[in-house]
Amino acid sequence: MEAAADDANKIDETKKCQKCEQYRDWVMQYSPNVVFMLEQIQRAGGSVPKDKISCEICKDPKYGGFHPELGIQLCANYIPDKWVLNDTLSHELIHWYDNTRFKVDWLNLRHHACSEIRAASLSGECAIMTEFWKHAGFMRVARGHQRCVKRKAVLSVMGHPACKSKEQAEQVVDEVFRSCFNDTRPYETIYR
Question: What is the documented function of this protein (predicted)?
Answer without folding.
Answer: Has a dual role in the assembly of mitochondrial ATPase.
